Amino acid sequence: MGAVRSALNEYSAHQPLVFFKIDSLLRGNIAATVRAASDQPVVLAPALPLGGRTVVNGVLHCDGVPLHESRAWQAERATPPVTIADVLAPMPCRIMTVDDVRSGELHARLVASIAADRIPVCDSATDTDLDTILTATVEIPDVRLIGSGGLASALGRALAVPGALPAPPMNPEHALLIVVGTADPGAAHQMRMLTDAGVRTVGIDARPPVQVEPRPDEVARLLTALEQGPAMLTLDAPDGVEPACSAELVRLLAATVQRTVEHVSSPTDLVLTGGETARRVLDGLGIDALTPITQVHHGAVHSRTPTGTSVVTRPGSFGDADSLVRIVEHLRPARKRKAEH
User: Where is the Four-carbon acid sugar kinase N-terminal domain (predicted)?
Assistant: First the structure.
């Protein structure tokens, strides 16, 4: 909570609107984020309809299945919440149903909820619902928006600037490291396609017991792979990732990346899949700010660091089978042109 308040103190005085990005599967310290932000009016809308994540009567659904009945948290140590109210407890909230959202009176109902010291939690089934929520919310003075990438996209649509400048060109002299830290089953096919496209892969031993200290031989193999072109770091877990070891494995991935990047001769661009992996890697490298540039595909966001390197972040469960290939081709267009010829 202290980190959120520190960020608020740094940025909110200079920004007319503050948006907090949370995980679309309700993982992480959402209650602490909301509590830290709630010294001003707060509206919560966590749905991500394009990713199949909708909110119905205050319950998050994944492709129509309530979160707590799905397998979305299979790699987590904790059990998923049944309702969003459970996530926020003991903070009081009020559910804004889809009927409320589409009533034409949403703004008044949000204001009434805030006046009653209840955090509005908005249902959403479509991107149009999120657009409606955004329109009703931004009229509230000093409001703070909290949501997933769905609400962020709605904000982007509302603030879009015609004729925006194109993204600066990528530097092909940078090293390119792809870090796959997700346990999502769909990632296996994505990794195979990237390997088939010629990207070298280094797997770190993910069998328990897990040691967090990087293994010199794995760091050496990753350095060798990076010297020859884009390289991918993955978890080598033939029998699947043990949920009880997931936190240690993320720390091991991040520590291995940090140790490797320290010895790479050129600046390193990164592709990071899985939210916890991305956060750990960026923290380990001392990267505390990202400027979004563009979206490679839904959920895969290309950002620039203060030092000029590229970082693409993507939720572990997102993307078609060619997701990683598309991201690498976006960062290294010459590889795509070569493949086409």
Answer: 4-155
